[in-house]
Amino acid sequence: METKVYKIENINRDQKAIRAGAALIRQGQTVAFPTETVYGLGANALDGQAVNRIFKAKGRPNDNPLIVHIADPSHFEALAHDVSARVPLLVREFWPGPLTIILKKSPRVPPETTAGLDTVALRMPNHPIALSLIQESGTPIAAPSANRSGRPSPTTAQHVLDDLSGRIPMILDGITPCRVGLESTVLDMSGDIPTILRPGGITPGMLEKVLGHVKIDGAVLEPLDMRQAPRSPGMKYNHYSPRAHVIIYRGQALGAMVGEIKKIAAKYQYDGQKVGILATDETMDRYREGLVISLGSRREPAVLAANLFASLREFENRGVDVILAEWVDEREEGLAIMNRMVRAAGFHVVDIEKPVEHKTKGDKRK
What we know:
Number of strands: 17
Order of helices and strands: EHEEHEEHEHEHEHEEEHEEHEEHEHE
Largest sheet: 12 strands, mixed
CATH architecture of the largest domain: Alpha-Beta Complex
Distance between the termini: 28 Å
Structural class: alpha/beta
């Protein structure tokens, strides 16, 4: 299959590309498109066979539910039932934007889209190309991130092409990188207590200003029991992982964390492995070992979030064998950053205050 890439520099001038993508959606095919969070791989959310093409292209486990994207705030009413009176408050405050709301699903939504769950995940993206594609298609669009399953999510059309070339028919290229850079916050509103299943750009503090108390699911920074069915994308499986081995170092003192990473980086280099260090603006000048990439300043967590996936892919493109990453504060967008990082590391987190034996031989991922 040839994957065609259409650059969209002006949403009004380039409507021909949008119409071509919408035609593929109506035909039951898949199209990759930009949102403000990451690129999505879309198909008709109401067509189970079309949705199955998403799973096949990505190599995604079929028990991992998808998010349904809509182009009008009122459209969620046709896709859900038993909606809490607080949901319209969230819609008015955060849509369009990086908030996904989980509700009891309507019979219109096929089980392929929800992985057999009785709930559906809905969001209205804040990107002109995404909204135009949904409107032109005339159907809600189911769309996970447009990458091979388990890989770092794509924030540029080139990332999508790197992963899915020859596996999907079309990519709509939004030219600039996705602004938020991490997937949406997923908030479960199907029960009595609003619960964050996946953190994102809409932070717990922002939600609490609208809803009051909001619970954070225990699987946000810990692995989910593999016997459980995931209620949201990004909960059960290892995600966001580059081909290099990732280890996160956590410590209260920034200097101690840097010192430990420097020491372990030297050991990996002595062992003949190419080391990458995922640092911040406040620390990057302290490293002389390996390839150092800064996510940005710790004072700007939204910038750290926007740069995360592109940085992981850059390490991979530079042939790094192991990535040693600094822990960042979990407040605000930091919770979303660490949610993605611990999964990229397969939950390999080293607390530097505790004695630990570091083994380098055999750590290199094949």
